[in-house]
TrEMBL record:
GO molecular function: CoA-transferase activity
Signal peptide: none
Pfam family, one: CoA_transf_3
Keyword entries, A-Z: Transferase
Listed SUPFAM superfamilies: CoA-transferase family III (CaiB/BaiF)
Coiled coil regions in record: none
Name listed for the protein in its UniProt record: Crotonobetainyl-CoA:carnitine CoA-transferase CaiB-like acyl-CoA transferase
Amino acid sequence: MELADELGEYCGKLLAGLGADVVKAEPPAGEVTRGYGPFQNDIPHVDRSLYFWHYNFGKRSVVIDLDTDDGRDHFAALAKVADVVIDTRRRDHLADRGLDYPHLAETNPGLIYARISPFGDDGPWADYHGSDLVHLALGGVMMNCGYDPDPHGVYDTPPIAPQMWQSYQIAGEMAVMSILGALSYRLRSGRGQRLDVSVHQAVSTNTETDMPDWVFLRQEHRRLTGRHSMPASTVPSLSITKDGRYIMPYRSYLSSFGASWEGELRLLRKYGMQSDLEEPRYADANYRVQPQVMDHIAQVTDKLVGRLLFDRDIWRDAQAEGLPWAPIRRPEENVDDDHWRARDTFYDVHHPELGETYTYIGARWYCPEVPWRQGPRPPLLGEHTSQVLDEWTPRTPLRPTRVPRRDSAAVSSRGTPFALAGVRVVDLSWMLASAGAGRFLAAMGAEVIKVEHESRWDSMRFGFGLCPPGGRAQRERAHEPIPTPEVTDPNQCGNFMEVNAGKLSLALNLKHPRGREILEDLIRQADMVTEGFSPGTMERMGLGYDRLREINPSLIYVQQSGFGQHGTYGQARAYGPTAQGFSGITDMSGLPAPFPPAGIGYSYLDWFGAYNMANAMLAALYRQAVTGQGCHIDASQGEIGIYLTGTAILDHAVNGRSWTRYANRSPYKPAAPCGAYRTRGEDRWIAITAFTDEQWAALVAELGQPAWASWPEFATLASRLAHQDKLDQLVEEETRCRDGFELMTALQARSVPAGVCQTARDRYESDPQLSSDGWMVELEQTDIGRWPVKEVPVRMSETPTYIGGPYDRSGPSYGEDTDYVLHTILGLTRAQTDQLRESGAL
């Protein structure tokens, strides 16, 4: 049962897609989000909101008036038989009506109650007001996203929030993850629990390399157009076509994971645009990475792209050469792509009450054995009230049919049970998009064994966030940025250790016959195998899904790549930014044209790829426990990117409207002012959102300009929306002389949603809410010592997560658990492992 606005509707949407019967409990006038745009034919109507259609697809609707005795009785009756309740109302809303979690749990001890709130229900900011913009500001996302500074290093454009409700989509992923973990725990214990999701904490854990660079090296990041934020400027990553569209000739920021130089030369030669790049000096990789040389190579590439139309699809020629190039598509340009159609990424959904069929975003991954749910269409207000009240009656609780192979009674270092104790995962992942998934399962108690080998390093071991030579002591003494140290071994990258926290490491050569045999022995005892290889790699090793099922008939196999194995793009090369360009996410972030897309200043789809993969793994584990069956899930970063484009696809299908950027404004939940405004200090900004006349009056009073409220052009929300350019200019004239944090505190005291655009330093050193939440945990790492690691941003009352996992530590040093896995788990003798080392299998 979902009692939720925009904070929780994405969570319910995911659960509905997984097959849950999600019933939306609405007040008599309908959920407030039925009033969010865009609308069918641009005519506001309670049953015509495209926002509501997108985020409530697959659900049913009941009308329950919680201010009446009958309504409260109906809610209590449904909650008594519900598996999950999602609640995003104000903190005391249900308690005031005798329907809070303690009361509901008395009649339904197995209930999982998921509470999603802006800042959590306790802590110094618990009563603060949020908005999508404010959360992306305070969570650090905005300070990673935007445009290059001017030649003097001064930012003349504001930080940019990725558009389309991204903060609530981040929180929704975390909520679903925790709900699925809690459901698995309930299967074996019969006990429900309360889950608390803070949007602020969830968003704050989502940024990528800015936090480890600050934590380890005291380096601050700079916003850069269409590419990763970095401590220093890098080569531009967008090239403009003849007709004013954009191509991303992507080059990874990981020097150990670069594109093929020979492939790039062949591409340029094909068009006779190689310039001087065939000269011998360019054959030297060390020469090519010099800044001025990289700039020159980029300029040569730009000239090629600038001679071609966007529809020439130069990116296809680049991909044929093994280059991870991408078109910067608008979201709707994916609808007719044969690849996504083959994967059921889009559905045609009939609305019988309208006599119309529209294209919706569909499956998040490809799994014919357990397909993503394809309906029903979004509910009309109260459409299912009598039906649900009749149908939702007591049922026999589900029980696991599969006996755990291992001890499921293990407790964490917190002294509490783990939700996934007894689960074993063989982790063949690498890089954040796939490796990041395992950290969430390890935090719930799963034994996650990372299988790796020096013949094909996980390049994150040599990435950003390197531990300084003097360790923690050097960092704590530092008052200036510490120069990035030379990489001398695979165990000094703090970012790798955080992404792989709680895992074991087995150094195993899968190119060696005995290495593959050992892997098969491990798979035989596992619940799941995950991998992030290029599509087809497992088949080439003789370990495709058919073979995996022979080894272990109930095995779950989850793979993730840029675009998925099934379909026409199976061999395409991709990183997070490549998938972002394809999906439409890059084009959706930025100032309106003629500005180029700003994109998202980190591998956003690497984190969302990890979230998506983790939720696939958790859903499959629950199904495996109930049915005894495994499955094969073929996931992709591109698909999850399309899923995050919100109403853009529907707006095009219904209204024929192509996506256009709207910067930091809020056109669909109208607000004015709504933007990021300068405050005192270098590159300091505050996000402010005023949805109501009351918030507007409070804002102008705090700014010392109460007369603005009576000006005709600002007297109503509609008039303020019509004069936003003038309004933004006036607001910034007042904010730029104020301290951002003091202004935020003053505005929040007046119930105005406001938040400083926080840096990694702000969140790490001075955010009182994150500190109160315990958002980081100190963990030991064998080689680099004790450092903070971001915890899972959800509190679980019965089975609290612990990012150190069952082994209470940060990420593993390379191969440090090889002997433990071989001797303790597989039962090999010392003589056998010595022989394996001599043969090269280890």
